[in-house]
Specification:
By secondary structure, the chain is an alpha+beta fold. It folds into three domains: about 55 residues; about 120 residues, no CATH class; about 55 residues, no CATH class. The chain has eight helices and four strands; from the N terminus they run H-H-H-H-H-H-H-H-E-E-E-E. The protein has a four-stranded antiparallel β-sheet, with no helix packed on it. Helix 1 packs parallel to helix 3.
């Protein structure tokens, strides 16, 4: 065994999923001591094994990039996007012209009301069945998201209208509000009511033929071990909406 061979194994271990990396490197290093011939070929074969483990890992590997999984990162991202949109919108002559007309605020409020009506007619506003003591925190988080979506869409439509066309402002505003409200609702339904993190590992359970006597839908789990979310594929009398199942604290050792 030489430092070069250990470096090869160490490089190959970077391909192995994080939870299994230390054990994998220790196993391959121990086997390397018993290799008399073809040591380099043996180390190169470790890359194939590491790559196979990564491709067939049953647990998805979270990328080392910024994501909206946690509530803090979600709100920070929306706040940053709102600040950038407002900054550029205030520098546009279009914004000053619309504000000078005096009907900008009433028109904006009308667009908000119209988008809410369209969303309520095309999307369910129900957030599901959750423990009663979790409503305030979840609703506060939802209200903050919507409050940040409003300036993003309003100022963003002005920014795009200055580049595309003046007529895009009203159409872009309405479409943006509908998409923004719909995203806020969908995002809220996929979050844990305890830690407000996005749920993971969606698993399909049952089938259409099981709807009458059994449950048919998708199960999601909180990575912190707070509980499970059951989302019915077909609303029934028993499961008309998604339902949250809290887990006992003893389950946290499994996460």
């Amino acid at each position: 065994m030489t430092p070069l061979h250990l470096a090869l194994l160490r490089s190959a271990s970077l391909l192995v999923p994080g939870p299994d990396r230390a054990e994998w490197f220790a196993e391959w290093s121990a086997e390397l001591w018993h290799v008399n011939r073809g040591t380099t070929a043996f180390c190169l074969g470790a890359f194939r094994d590491a790559f196979w483990l990564r491709r067939n890992n049953p647990i998805p590997i979270a990328p080392h990039t910024f994501s909206l999984r946690s509530p803090l990162s979600c709100l920070l991202f929306l706040a940053a996007l709102a600040a950038v949109s407002i900054y550029f919108a205030l520098r546009l002559p279009l914004t000053r012209a619309l504000w000078a007309r005096g009907n900008f605020v009433p028109a904006y409020l009308f667009m908000i009301a119209l988008s809410v009506l369209i969303v309520s007619a095309t999307t369910s506003l129900a957030l599901g069945e959750y423990p009663g003591n979790r409503h305030f925190r979840r609703r506060t988080f939802l209200a903050i998201k919507i409050a940040l979506v409003l300036p993003i869409v309003c100022c963003g439509s002005l920014d795009l209208a200055s580049v595309i066309s003046m007529s895009f402002q009203s159409h872009g505003l309405l479409i943006g509000l509908i998409v923004g409200f719909r995203w806020a609702l969908v995002d809220q339904r996929r979050r844990c009511p305890v830690c407000l993190r996005l749920l993971t590992n969606p698993t399909r359970i049952g089938g259409p033929s099981h709807t009458f006597l059994d449950w048919y839908g998708t199960e999601l789990i909180c990575a912190q071990g707070h509980g499970l979310l059951y989302v019915p594929e077909i609303p029934t009398s028993c499961y008309s909406t998604q339902r949250w199942q809290s887990l006992d604290p003893s389950w946290t050792s499994l996460f």
